[in-house]
Amino acid sequence: MTMRIHATPCEMRAILKSRKRVVFVPTMGNLHVGHIALMKQARSHGDTVVASIFVNPLQFGPNEDFNSYPRTFEEDCKKLNDAGVDFLFAPDNHDLYPEAQTYYVDLPGIQNQLEGRFRPSHFRGVATVVLKLFNIVQPQVALFGKKDYQQLMILRNMTRQLALPVEIVGNETVRDDDGLALSSRNAFLTPEERAEAPRLHRVLEQVRDAVLRGETAFSKLERDAAAELDQHGWKTDYIAIRQQSDLQIPEPDTAGLVVLGASRLGIPRLIDNLELRTGN
Predict the structure, then answer these.
(1) Active site residues
(2) CB 192: neighbour CB atoms within 10 A?
(3) Which letter, b or e, does each residue of 126-161 get, where b requires 16 or more Cβ atoms within 10 Å of its Cβ?
């Protein structure tokens, strides 16, 4: 079956109305192997796989890369079709925002921490567009990658607290052989920066291993990790050890932790994380 492409909410609702179990993977396009892994995993969760491609202006700040974000629609469609996606929802701005968006999802304080501290209003834009996409596609299951860990946590908790009938599934981060998490923004790395980029993953592994050994001076581990990156030419926004469930600062004996990092290497800003379990 060849993937079918629809642009308007009315078309998408009509075509999916009779489908039994819809699995949804929202994207902003410029797809890589990590996205395709999500598409293939989606098939095991339902009968109909729907992807979306939409570069959402609400989640970009005034000095961010909305206009330069890579748009590779034809190549993306071929990849999605080859991955067995049944339907692609590909609206333009007017389809999704026929009038100025003045209603938004009101998020808790975590939206202003970690990524939110450096990208004000980003998660408000993400949550608003995802809620709108859920209302259009009406899936039973939605898949997101764990690389955007704060996004996954916010969307999972939003879905639960708003009683949306959608199961949120987090898929493991897909990495290159040297450990670098796949990202559309990796394309902006120079060859020299690409060789350096796996250091972020290695630094997070060092923090994870230290916590698993029983070290509890979390603030020192975070500072030392950031300093190591910066000594090699990075500009680090944060290295943070947090609770998986809500990304709050943990107590030393908290079970279910994640170490997260964001740092700029040249032009690209890279993010990554590693889950770990410790305590009782």
Answers:
(1) 35
(2) 11
(3) bbbbbbbbbebbbbbbbbbbbbbbbbbbbbbbbbee
Cβ atoms of 130 and 153 closer than 8 Å: no
User: Which amino acid would we find at residue 167?
Assistant: E
Q: Are strands 269-276 and 87-89 parallel, antiparallel or unpaired?
A: unpaired
Domains 4-171 and 184-273 alike in fold: no
Tell me the per-residue pLDDT of 209-220, one tens digit each, with 9 for 90 and over: 999 999 999 999
Domain 184-273 has CATH 3.30.1300.10: yes
Residue 280 pLDDT exceeds 70: no
Q: What is the dihedral of CA 238, 244, 248, 253, to 10 degrees?
A: -110
Where do the structural domains in the chain lie, given as residue ranges? 4-171, 184-273
Dist CA 182 CA 31 (whole Å): 10
Does domain 4-171 correspond to CATH entry 3.40.50.620? yes
3-state secondary structure of 2: coil
Interval 186-210: pLDDT, tens:
989 999 999 999 999 999 999 999 9
Q: What is the DSSP letter of 213?
A: T
Phi, psi of 231 (to 5 degrees): -65, -20
